[in-house]
From TrEMBL:
The protein's name: Uncharacterized protein
Amino acid sequence: MNEHTRKLAPVKLLQQFALNRALAIAQLRELDRVMLHISSAYDTMLDHTNVGLILAEWIMGAYETEPAWLVKL
């Protein structure tokens, strides 16, 4: 590793950290938005137990795609 590369290494690490942090924040905001929609849909469903079960199975990977009612949100 030459001198120039050695000086750039900490900068590259900081850039990668900043990018990872920005991505994590964006993902949390998206998750918050999705959870708000799910909460609204959950409140309007008649059978809350069934909705919870469908969501749990979807999150656990039982469904390859989102449940149809969730896609409409």
